[in-house]
Amino acid sequence: MMHPFYISIKDLQHLTGLGRTTIYRRVKDGTFPKPVKIGTRTCWVRDEIFTAFEALKSRRSA
Questions:
Q1: What's the pTM?
Q2: Quick one: pLDDT at residue 57?
Q3: What is the rounded CA–CA span in Å between residue 17 and residue 4?
Q4: Nearest 5°: phi and psi at 60?
Q5: Can you tell me the distance from the alpha carbon of 24 to that of 35, in angstroms, rounded to the nearest whole number?
Q6: pLDDT along the chain (62 residues), means of 10
């Protein structure tokens, strides 16, 4: 089993172009994956982020 790849908030901001507040607002309203805690760091699972992107893309196409 492969270990998941984690993305920091800074990398997520760079990847999405979204600000920190917007990311956390979308997590709260359920339109973005929840982060995980690794020690004191807050990270996102890369595969969950890309799955969310695909879901948004498919909703846009429908």
A1: 0.80
A2: 81
A3: 22
A4: -65, -35
A5: 9
A6: 80 94 95 94 94 84 63
- Could you tell me the fold of the domain covering 6-61? Recoverin; domain 1 (1.10.238)
Cα distance between residue 33 and residue 35, in whole Å: 6
Q: Hey, what amino acid is at 26?
A: R
Cα–chain center distance at 26: 9
Within its chain, how far is the Cα of 33 from the centroid?
5
**Structure tokens, 29:** 């309203």
What are the helix (H) ranges across 1-62? Answer: 9-16, 20-29, 46-61
Nearest to 43 by CA among 30, 32, 34, 53: 34
The CA-CA-CA angle for residues 26, 32, 38, to 5°, reads: 105
Q: Domain limits of the chain? A: 6-61
